[in-house]
Amino acid sequence: MSEDTRSTPASVPVPPARRRLGRNYWRLLSASTAANLGDGLMTVAVVWLASSLTREASLIALVALATRLPWLLFALPAGVITDRIDRRLLVAWADAARFAVVAAFGAALLLHQDGLPTPAELAAGAPPPGNAGWLLAALCGVALLLGSAEVLRDNAAQTLLPSVVDKRDLEKANSRMWGAETATNNFIGPPLGGLLVAAALALPFFLNAGLLAVSALLVFTLAGSFAPAAGARTGRISWRAEIAEGMRWLWRHRLLRTLALLLAAMNALGAMAMVVLVLFVQDVLNLYQGWQFGLVTTGFAVGAVAGSAIADRVAARLTPGTAMLTSIAGTGAALCVLSTISSAVLFWATGVVSGFLMILWNVVSVSLRQRLIPDRLLGRGNSVYRFFGWGTLSLGAALGGVLVTAGEPWLGREGALRMPFLLAGLAHLALLAYALPRINSARVAAAEARAVEG
Prior knowledge:
The chain has helices at residues 3-6, 23-51, 57-82, 87-112, 119-123, 132-164, 170-199, 203-220, 239-252, 254-274, 277-283, 290-296, 298-318, 320-338, 344-372, 378-435, 441-453. It is mainly α. α4 (87-112) runs antiparallel to α8 (203-220) and α6 (132-164) packs across α16 (378-435). The radius of gyration is 22 Å and the shape is globular.
């Protein structure tokens, strides 16, 4: 709860539009904005560097796999840690660790970036550089370390938010948070990253390091203590028992179990398609400049930013259940359309629709989770949810690379790059058969009523 809400007498309810989110919230939002701008730079810098070293879809997918694998390996232990330690410190130290890793890799890359071919030169038949193997290995190692710190950071940050704002304002707070994160991560960061890699491959890594340092400093300045609530476990960690407690709680919660399984499927399908996006843009849309890749992918961000401004109102008008079902169906249709597109303009426009639907799902589902899970279990509940929902990103990324590599001899380069989008879209639509009887506004209202009753 923010300082502003605490100072309001309980007998005088304040309308949501007039309640302030508080100074701590704006510091947390600013930190998240800085960190996500750096992440946006990395979305171009990492894959562009990889595509300057190899044209093999399976090797580029390996870099993405290294980034996402920590969600499968470390999400559950991260929840146990989050339920024991001051969540502000976890977020801040995770950003500080990411700063050190990115700065060190940027310095190493600065010494070896001269002489690397461009993706266009590689596509035209130029040989890969002699240091391609160790640079790819180093890139995978950096991706694994950054992904591991991100697991702890993101789980702690989502667990921290309900302690920063009034729970009645979670949709509003999450909308602003997702809007700022998406604008920087997907709208500002990628085109800026594209411009920076054109100047020097190491430049976006150094800028990201500076942004992570700013984020860590801002989080360190949050006022108050954000340790888990009274009743949380203390003393020696019993990893198996504490993970099992969070797992049992979420698995027995019918609504959250359904949402976790749906998110697991949707994220795997999304990763399967998006892991080869850099090659799709280069070889299908014929865009071989870093700034072009950054620009064409901003459609997803435009839709997400627009969605973040109105997602809470759209969810209220449609009701949460209908909003989530709309997101599943619409995303499936958008992926099917993307599989047929050869125009950069149409790709961008379809990305706008997809980005809007993505943010609608996130705002509704994250706010529900923050309200339904009790504080003493919030870290583990979030981590179990994300273990299912995000752990499958690594599986989807690996599958996407394999599909393109295996399909290219039969379908050609372009057909193989289109295939993951089509399969992901059709599978999204098939998920509606599972979601329709399990997600509706009555189930959501009943779950929220039980959470209030305790």
